[in-house]
Amino acid sequence: MNKLLRKIMGLLPAGLLLLFALNGCSESTAVQKSTRADLINLVETAHISNPTRNAVKFPHDIHVEFASKNGEECRTCHEYNDHGDLVYTFKRSTPMSEDELVKHYHDRCQACHTEANAFGEYKAPLLCGSCHAEPRRYESNWTPIGFDKSLHYLHTMVTDDDCASCHHVYDSVAGELVYIEGEESSCIICHKSTAQNGTPSIKSASHRACITCHSENSCSDCHDPIRQAKIEKMDDTPRLERGQPDFALLSAGDRDLRRSKLGTVPFSHIEHEEALGTCRTCHHEGFEPCQNCHTPGGSKLAQGVTLQQAMHAMNSPHSCVGCHDREKSEPGCSGCHGLMEQGRLSEHSCTICHNGPKPSELNAVKGRFTSFDQFRADTNKTRLSFAAKEIPEIVEVSALQDRYQPVKFPHKRIVDTLMAIISGSRIATYFHGDEDVVCQGCHHQSPIGESPPLCENCHGEPFNPNTKNKPGLLGAYHRQCTGCHEKMNVLGRGNDCTVCHEDKGMQADAGTSVERPKEK
Amino acid sequence: MTDRIAALKSRPLLTPFNIFAAIILVIGAFLTFKRFTQGIGAVSNLTDTHPWGIWIGFDLLTGVALAAGGYVTSAAVHIFGKKEYHSAIRPAILTGFLGYSLVVFALLYDVGRPWKLPYPFLVSQGVTSVMFEVGACVMLYLTVLFLEFSPAALEWLGLSKIRKTVVRLTMLLTILGVILSTLHQSSLGALFLLAPSKLHPLWYSPYLPIFFFVSSIAAGLSMVIFESTMAHKKFEIYMDDRHKQEYNPVAFGFGRAAALVLAAYFACKVFGIALDNNWRFLFTGWGAWFLFELSGFVLLPCFMYSIGVRDRNPKVIRAASVITVLGIMLNRLNVSVIAFNYHVPADERYFPSIMEIGITLFIITIGILVYRFIVTRMPVLYKHPDYEDVH
Amino acid sequence: MGITRRSFLGWLTGAAGVATGAKTVEAAHGHFNGYPDSYAILHDTTLCIGCRSCEAACNTVNNLPKPEKSFKDLTVLDEKRRTTPHAFTVVNKYTDPHTGKITYRKDQCNHCQEPACASACFVGAFKKTPEGSVQYDASVCVGCRYCQIACPFNIPTFDFDDAFTPKITKCTMCQPRIEKGQLPGCVEACPMEALTFGKRSDLVEIARERIRKYPQRYIDHIYGMDEMGGTNWLYITETPFEQVGMRTDLGVTPAPEFTSGALSIVPMIIGLWPVLLGGLYVINKRRDEIDEHEKEEAVKTAIENANNGGKEGRHDR
Q: Exposed (0-12), middle (13-18) or buried (19+): which is A130, by Cβ within 10 Å?
């Protein structure tokens, strides 16, 4: 009996463990990831060329928190150089070989971690895999923080308009930093992503400049996207005066291009200043003329980006066309533009901008054009070539009526709404000139006029292998309508069918055309 | 012999075990009725996301693994010539035969349309399926076990001529048994090869068939030791001298073999982790569970077996056999139920319903009762006096 | 003798070989790209508005019992659903935790090119048709549910509440309708044409064209091109696939390849084991015989020695 009892008692913990396994051991192997903005990739900062293990993503804020709680300061981990500046590497200011670096990090990190663990409340990692972790516990959401007009204005208020507190240029003769009025510019003009010829990298320079005042802030206070969104946005900032023109006629300085028949581009600088948050969007390397680097044939200075690409590249954050293309995704614009093939330019696109005097005429017309208004279309003129009263009030869409009543489409109201949006936007007003292009938003792939073709003239049965990319009529209607509604955030997602057409009250869950309406 | 028959006649009916068994039989009958009139869902927690539960994990997978004693013992005696374990054959074959019969019996509950079970072999053959191979081998092996066990029954019934014919087939049946057992023991593991996205990486491996096969050998060896321990406690009066004499030698011999097999199995498992570089999973919660299974139920009994054999201590060996048997059960449940569907959130995981457990207990109880019936009457634990040449 | 028998036979064989055209047989290295011209369906989740018309159509076309909550009831989308014996397809709503953006996705059998269910079924109840669909034959089904274990997308459902004729159910791609030139019910019903029906090769072109035209809208991957060896239900989406309940860790190996290795060893075991085991038996038996023989020899020698020694002893005296 004894043995049996012992056997049962032996089975009991096994049974309990089984229960534990079934209920508790169901965590998936996907480790919970948290996002942090303060992760420093040590392989990059130490320039390790052939790491044998995964890079350590060092969470700076955690260590700062620990340090401040235990009465430590920056100098616990960072050295100061002869000028009294903080050196942003870990306890080293002299160059080391890679092997020395690896040993340096391992010895110091593990020593401190061991000491911290002795306090009891900390669980600093000591195993290889805990630091060189894979899958990593932390996902970096570090976002660069750029100075836009709003942030700049906040800082000018705090420094009482003392530009010299941040802006400087390097006087190579005197060997020091000086402030020259009228030559203020963005930090990245001189400070690039890596240190060059003694000029510190942007990372080094910006931290040095910012941390002088922001010494109490952590990495995530500036680099966490959620905190960034919380920074106060100043809307009405004064214009940054630096002797810039209000208006310019853009032309290429190249001698060959002067013989071109394509007009120069009238450019309203002041309106672009008001529309954009920072000068860097266009003047991304400095205030010199673009073609100093972006030559027509492409040069090494510009990494081979030609002048044409610099102005017209669709995917560039700096090019004219690229920025204008991105404007199409604004809610007011995307109802039409969101459904069109992205990045598509028609053959009319050139003259919309290139409508200034030809380059060869520039000398002759010098001084005559002083404002952009001379090129702007007349906003009072109607946008449409046919009278507004000819636009139908209601259009009844009944081609496919089956389970639902025909749609009473408020055509005029929609056109009026779109026209109102366009006239409220300077860029839309300019680009939608005095053509009837606004009709093309829905009446696509066809010539414009008072009576454009009906949808069913082109959209027939679906899934025709000869017209693979053209939806059938049902899909065409719904994609066009709900697509626009969704992009412009009107009438919701479109899954409440009765918003547009009344239910005929057929059998409750009829789904296909096999159903017929109930006999009334 | 007269002791045996006297003991058989004088057994009391209302023992605690008999009462307990009777209750389970009644409940089982009721649950069977419920199962076949209201469907599987009415008596189990099986769902579309968890289509296999303990009926497959325990009744089928563990049952087949633990019934492996049959082929292991008959191979040891007939092929490897270990005549000193001869007395262990019949009990092992009986355990095997009963085990497989109960597996098929349990399948009648688990499968949706049990009357269509012959279809894969007679009507439409799905030969791309590992399960087809499992089914074919199990069916054939059940026949082999039936034939291997039949001499005992035939002796009891006095049908000596048929018995003589059957006994002549022993060698063939043994070899066939080992082939079929290799095939279906490994294929039960191969079943899960088809679901790499659902089985946790520590248990999923291309080596699954090998794991199942090797562990089935250890399971069979341990089950023989365990079964002989139980039999020795309860049914000693039905044993003959040879059986009693070989009681400890069987433990030592099978214990030594089990130690070696468990060591090999451990090595295979480690190589399995190395194959896909799955070391990192050992540092998770699942890893702890895996290490618990491997260290507590493979490594520990391996050492216990070794120590027991070295020190000639049968008690340690018998304890090790219990742990190994539990370990096999744990492993099969891990692969089929616990570490299976590990992606599914905790609140949607499967746990057997009380009725599922009830039916499993019902099946086990039937098995024990049939075992008791056979062992107390037929010449399994003793040699029939008329057939001294029993093979 | 001019011609020997050997050389004559040799010429005969050679002539036979030439006569049969000496056709070269090419080795086939199995990668199944699907039956040519098989149909498929492209699901564009950016177009799905979660109206459940497809669910309603599927219910009607397959004569399934009407559910408790009408198909117009969109509150069911607040919970994640899976296919059930009376719902071959479901639409689920996925909300991005960071942006709140909502994506809908229709879930149903993906009609894999090399289906796991067909590989798993030991009665061959599943067949991949040349039209592209995977069909299920309930008349042979035993109800073992191995197909449910095998399906990486967790689609097949089983009638756990049916005691007498439980069967597996799943989307059939409306095979009878396809054969008549009609569209599958769900495709016909979708108002947004979020489901496109056509030849698989055409759908891949359409998907690629959409991705090319709207690079900001779509993730550059057609789900189902290669997953599990390729499926006949393709997906393109804006939200990452993991966020709309689609596993991206399934790999490109077709399911049957996972078990074909284990199955291929079966004939090897049947061929080798008898020899191995029989050999062991013979070796052991032989060794026992030799032991026995040596024992007898030793006994004989001992007796002889004893007899000889005895004689000598008497002689001595």
A: middle
